[in-house]
Each structure stands twice: as C-alpha cells, then as structure tokens.
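Exam review. A common question shows you a sequence with its structure tokens and asks you to describe the fold in words. Practice with the pair below. Do the first one on your own.
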Amino acid sequence: MVDTEKEFDVLDMNNYKVEKLPQKEKTGFEKYMAIVGAPLAIIVFILIYFYSDISFLNNINPDLLGKTALKRFHEVGSAGFSRINYAMLAIAVSSIILWITEAIPNYLTSLILIVAMVLTGVTSEIDAYHQLGHPVMWLNILSFVLASMLVKTQIAKRFALWFIVRFGKNATWIFFSFMIINIVLSAFISATTAKAAILLPIFMVVAAVYGARGGDKRNNFGRNLVLQNLFQINVSAGGFITGSGANLLAGSLMAGALGGQAFSYQKWLFAAFPLAVILLLLGWVISVKFIFPMKPEEKEPQIEGGMERLKEELHKLGPISFQEIKAIIIFVAVLALWATDTLHGISQTAVAFLGAVVALTPKIGVVKWNDVDIPWHLLMFSAGAYTLGAGLSATDLAMLSVNSFYDGLGFSANTPFWVFYVFLTGCMLFSALIFQSKTMRALIFIPIAIGTAQKFGYPVLSLTLPVALLIEHVYALPFNSKPAALLYVTDQYSWSDTAKYGITMLFVAWIVIIVWGETWLRLLGYTPNGVFGLF
C-alpha cells in the first residue's frame, strides 16, 4: 500500500497552488439550495412581474373606478411603481436568488440578467451591453494585468517570503507579518482574489510548519492564520479606494450624487485607512485571545527546519532581477499617481491603463499578454451586476423603494440621524451573510444610503460614506466572497469556525463604525454633528 503521507511534502509551495487545491464538495444544505434555487427564482420572477401589487385590479369593476383610472393603475401601480419598475424588481430578486443559491454558475446568471433587462424593456440594448466597458470593469481587467506582472516577476512572492523570514520569529510576529503584507499588497492590487492566490501557498507552508495540516490535523494556529488572512485580505482592501472594484464603484456613485465632484484617493484614504488598521488589530486580538486561543505547543514550530524551507524558497529566487526592479518602479509610479489624483486630475482607471501599457510594452515592460491571467467568468459576473445597477438607477427603483419603506414605517424628518446611521451600516454589514458580490452590495446599498440622505435632508456623505467603508466585510461564510470560497478549500477550518469568527467581527465592525462616525468622520466633516451628537 502506498504511503501518501510520505509522498506529500507539506513544505512544498507547489502543492498549494490554486489549481492543485481539491474541489470542496457541497454540503447537504448547499445541495438543497442549489436544487431549489432555479425553480424558486422562476416562481418569484413570475409572481413579481405578473402579479405583484396590481393583480387585484383585474377583479375591479371598471365602472367603479372608471376606465381611465383603472388603466392608469395598471400602468403605474401603487407607490409610483410602473410596470418597468416591477420588471426591474422581478429581475433583481430572481437574480439575487440565483447568485445566492448558485443553482447555475454566477456568470450565467449575469448573462441571463442582461438579456432579461433588454427583453422586458427595462433598458435598451446599448445601455445593457455597454456595462462591460464600465470604467470599473476596465480597472478590474487592468488590475489583473498588473497583478500578473507581480506573479510573473515573483516580486510579490519575494516580498512575502522575505518579510516572513525576516520578522516571523514566532507565532505573534507571523500574524503581524501577514497583516503588513496584506496592507502593502492592497495598495497595489485591486483584486482580492489575486491577493489570496498569491499568499495562499506561503501561509499554507507556514501553517504546516506549526503543525496545522488541515482536516483531522487542524489546530488553532492554522485557524488563526488562515481566517485572519481572509479577514485581512478583505478589510485591508477597504483602506484604499483602489483596493477593489466595488470601492471604486462606490466612489463613482457618491461622485454622481455630489453632482460629478470626484471622491478622491486621498479622501478615501484619510477616512478609511486608519479604520482598516484598527479593525485588523481588533481581528487579531479577538481571534487569538478569545475565539481560537492557542496552546503553548501550537505557538512553536512543529516541523524541524520548517522555517529553513522558507529561507530555501527565498534563496531559490536568487538576487533581485532587473525585471523585478522594473515591476517595482511601475507599481510605485502607479501608486504615486493614484495618491496624487487631486493634483493631476487623472482617474484611477486611466492611471491603471498607463501602468498596464508600460508593463505590456515589448522590451520596456515585464509581462506578455499570454502571461496575463484574467478570470473572464468573474468579469462576466461583474458586468451583470453593473447592468443590474444601471437598471436600478434608470428605473429609480432604489429611491421609490426607499420612499415606500420609510413612509410605511412612519419615518419622518424628525427621526434622529443615528437611527438611519445605525440601520444602514447594519444592513450593509449583515447583508454580507446573504450576498456573494461586493459589487452587488455596493449597487444596492450605496443608492439606498444616497436616497435616504436626500429624502431626509442630510449631507449625502454623512450616510453614504460610512456605508461605503463597509463594502469589504465579506468573510463570515465560505460563499460570501471568492477569497472566502478559495481559502475554505484549504480545510484549515470548518463552517462553524468561520461563522463564529466572521459574525463576531461583523458585530465588532458595526460598533467601530458607529464610534468612527461619532469621532473621526465628524472631525473630517462627514458627519457634522456626529452620530449621536455626544460631543
């Protein structure tokens, strides 16, 4: 009998490449969701599109209401909802059901969504199809070009290995090392999935060194390391407007609400970066001290010479090459232009274009097009989300829904600001337990926050910016984001582990954003009187 235990080298980074990770089988609940997802989406679509709200009018005697009024009711419905609004609502709800249940691939849901909006007359073909050319879509594509440059030149691997070898002397410093690595990479890479793919082989080897091999050989060091990396990959991205496409989309939506006044890189950095650092530190304390406390033996390397293997991996890279130096220069230049956008006026997407052009230019650049790894299925999924957002905007469904919701609950101009602040930030955070897409959450909740502020006469950013700062909190459950799904496959933790840590951190983030609004955002002038007006 072959001893597979001896064949598998736990310290070989090649064993932890994304393409070599085993496919995680769906659980019973996940299988059930996938089975009921498609028929449920179809039923919901039919009920909303054909019968929602105004079906009772079919039983009304035309003489009672008058033919003209009855016709108007059929066209408009209640609360100002037109047939187009109901079509948009039907498409949105059924698409969300398909995305959540994963009854069909997410990119296929997006393609169905796009054509459904055209066939139901929600939007024109030009408006539906041109979302693939959205500036944020281009930023995503170009970010994968720049990320591929990091992978090909191995500068990201060199930096991460050097940092771990240099500072990872014990368990505590290993956690801090990955925290810093994630922050640095977030400044350059706007694709959280790409960051996860770059770091996964490194922290898996570190986990193995400390005795965490997954499955029946899990330990709290491995749980802490992988779950904190998942938390850090997402939350550190929230510190930069270029940290993800969803952040940039939120910035674009806020700029539109401000009459085209751009929301700059610096403004986001000042408001978000300190918040991200505080949350990362809290995530570390809560994880290692309370949720997954480590035994003394788990804080020490379990494999003799394990850290030496990391040194060997670093040594194999050899001296830093001229190609790596060029990659560093390109990235530093891109970051510098992003950070000074208010001085030169060049958008983040245009800057990424310039960086990608230089990186791809023969003899000057460092990467060829065939070396670029662009996950087109993710981009198709994003295109569907942007198309849905365009439809919500075109039909004014978000504003109509906001008005109906608040009117139904009896909210008025006398309702305290803190009620809206606490409610909207809570909705944004805990929606992450349902929605798989950060882009989708941005497209839904940023317009709602804008509409709420406008309806009740508050400054747009007083509610919208705090909601936007919470876009990246997608780490609680394995299906909440692509990095979450990717890292769950490592088998270093269970569903209950990630739920326990993730949901705890969602509540912590809710408390912190409330304090943030009362203090730092007030100091910056976004919440003029704070949340509760305590100071």
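Now try the second one, then compare your answer with the model answer below.
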Amino acid sequence: MTCRPITLGIRVRENGINCYSAAMDWIVSLIPEIAPDPLASLAHPPAGATIVELRADRFPGIDIGAAISACPLPVLVTLRSVAEGGEGPDDPVRRAELLGGARDAGAALLDLEHQRDASLIGRLGLAPEQVILSWHNTEGTPGRLDELAGKMLGSPARWVKIVPTCRRLADLEALLSLHQSHNHGPQARRRLLAFSMGAPGLASRYLAPLLGPPVGYAAWSEDAPAAPGQLTSQRMEAVISHLEGPPQRLYGVVGADVSSSLSPVLHAAGYRRLGLPYLMVPVSVPDPEDLGGIFAPRGATLFDRVGLEARGWAVTSPYKAEAAAAADQLAPRVRRAGAANTLVLGPERLVAENTDADGVVGSLVTLGIDPQSRAAVVQGCGGAGRGAAVGLHLAGAEVVLRSRSKERAQRVAEELGVGWCPPDAFPEGTDLLVNATPLGREADELGPFTEDEIAGAKAVVDMVYASHQTELAASARAHGVAVADGREVLLHQGYAQFAAFTNQLPPKEAMREVLMR
C-alpha cells in the first residue's frame, strides 16, 4: 500500500461534518495524555482539524493501519526521535522500518527528520508531496538556522519544518528572519514552516501560518499540547483568522511570561469587527535586558528588522515601570503612577499611557458603582496597584494602599499622593476592595483580603483573571458583594488600549463577547 494523496487548503470540519472552505489547514496532534483509547479519539478529531498528526513515538506498538482507518481525516505519522525531544528511536535502521510500515499502512504524510531520515525519501519511494522534512532543537536556537533552512529547502519535500526553542528575543528575531529570507511568492507555494517552542517564541506560532504556508500545528485540546507552547486551533483562529497574510501593523502584549494572556484574543475581535489587518501577539521577555529590542521607536524594533511594522505594546508584569522609563512622552496618569501598561510607538518617540486606571474604574461603573467619595483599599504596590490607585483617586475615591511591606506601602503612597496602612490594618468604612496582586492566579489560592473585610465591602475588583473563579471572587459573591473579575478589568483597559493603538472607537460588544466566551 502507498500513501494516500491528499488535497490541502480546502477541507475543514464544522460540527463533525466535512465541508469545503479556503480556510487555513490545521495539523492537530494526538498524544497519549488525552487518548487512552487512541482509535476512539482518532474517529472524532477536534472541530477545525484538517490533518491529524499521530505521534507514533508516543504510541509504541500501535496498529498504524487501524489508526489510519479509524480517522476520517488524512493522517500524518510522526516518529519523533529522542534526539529531537520525542520518544522514538534514533537508530536509522529501526526508523526506516517503522516509517516504511507507516507508508505501507497508508499514511497521507510522513514526518522525516532531516538529520536521520532524509535518505528515506528515495529509499521508500515517496513523492515530495507526501513528506514533511523536519528539524527540532529542544535546547535552544543555534546560529546556523539560515544555512540549515537553505539546505533543507533543497530537498524534495512538501514542507520543511524548522522548530528550535527560543530562550530570548534574539532567538525569536533569528527565527522570524527565515520567513523573510525563504518564504516568497503566493502562500500556497511557500514551503517553510518555521516556529518555536518555548514562551519567548510563542509569537512565531501565530505568525508562521501568515508568513509561510497557510498551515499551523495545533494541540488536540488545551490540556494536552504535543510540544511546549502548542495552542489549540480555536485559540489560533481567534487571533489570526481575520488575516490572509502578514499583518499591516503588529502589536504585542509584553511581560515576563504572557503565554496565557487573553489580550491577543480581545484585540483580534476588535480588528475583525472593524476589518483592520492588524495583529496582536504575546511577547514573553524573561530577561529585562532584551526590552531595548522592542521598547524602541517605530521602525527600530526587532520586529521591524524582520519586515513586521510594530506599532504598540500592551505591557504587563513586571515591566510597567520600565515601560514608563522608556517613553519620551508620558500621559499624566503615567507620570503620577510611575508605571505604564500601554506604549504607542511613534516614528521618533514612545508615548506611554496607563489604562489600568480605566480597567478598575470602568469595571466599577459597569457594576453601577461610582467611585466618587468612596473609601477604597488597593492591595499591591506594583504597576497594576499604582495604576489602580491613581485611577480611583482621579475618580474621586479616598484611596488607601496596603502591601505585605509596610515600608513599601508608605513609600509608594507618598509618591502617589494617597493614603496607606500597615499589612495587618484595615480602615473602617472601606467600600471598595481592589486586588492588584497575583494572589488567586493559581486554583484554590487565597486572596489578600479576609472574610470580614470582604463581607463589609460594597464591591470587589479582582485584577487577576484565570480559567477558574478566584477564591476572592467566590467569597465576595457568597457574601452578596458585587464583583468585577479580572476579565472585566481586562476588557475595560483593553477598550482604552485599542483606541490608543488604532485611533478608532473600540467595538465593545464584539470584544466583550469573545472575552467572556
């Protein structure tokens, strides 16, 4: 039996039914963590999948013929070696035997590793369109990527896949430059799939299907990525489906690790509704030394060097003070707070704003609560706490800062011109509680306020958002206290960011709908 030919770029699944569209192809990876019965799972691929990748190295002894027969979609068989981060053999003889068996079983595509399997294209009699020639490095990003890409693209393969691990922004720049050098002409004719494992390279997963062939690798479910940083096709579509190629403008959410940020989804909903060919991506920066590569005027960032016009950053922990320090023009709220969560990149200067203030005040107004003359305790003195305190104070609230450190609370409060209290104190008559700390991000993690403090409040604003309800939000609701959770805060500060970035009114209903969904 030979590999079954497939036609890509047209077949998608909606509600379990095969239909036809010009949509992007999604290769969805099946791994044992979510497939105790792999044949049953293969019979029902996720909605949106175009091709199913069977990680044969993760299913030793599986009947590949039965697996292919069980799946209604074309099957890509991958035998990732131990040397490249998998569990399959490195021995070329054993690899040839197993991959030859997959060919005979009718696999639509075979993943052949450049360093171990390139000779099998001829030995197994494979047509180029049946081959993905791949290279992975789980340790880092070597300096020879351009040379490697040129050599691999000289081989007869449908696609060439290069996946290093980005540790720093310089690695991301080197990876994205491959698209600039090697992906030319109509998208359907491009051959290089280049993206990264690791948080600093996450932006490349969104960009690769736009800069290279319209093909993306996706996780079967959120709980079981086949590689570090792999996302579901639903998450990818939510961010990039409004685009048919490279974005005209690039924005990003910047922080130490923004892998779980919902800002790209939120802003994409606005771009989609207004027909704007823009994109927001996560930009994780573990080393603050790398901020200079992005906190720069328009045309001077690392993204500009690889052909992507960067126009602004949504900045989160722990870089809000650095964002304010990098700016040439500070909005009054930034000047007072000493922290910025929004950087607009001009051709010669950076403009800083703090929309955390809009997030907290706007979420309270949505609850029907005017902060004017209300007593508020803001827990946390970082960038989020500073922005929240300034926003509430400007809205007429009597603000008290509290922190685990008495000395820090006093120093920051004096800088901001608001009140403060020791960590074991609580002002009587407090109406509003604001959690501006990370407490609650982990499931079952207690928040910074006691039950008595919560029960006596009129409203709670929890700036933390997660896939679960935080303990603080749950406690407030149990006491009948109005709650604005982290998604509500994100929504309101996102409205203000969207307007600052695009100079257009944000389509609030579309943005709210996608975020709350």
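Model answer, second protein: Confidence is low (pLDDT under 50) at residues 1-5, 7-22. The two ends are 45 Å apart (CA to CA). Full marks require stating both points clearly.
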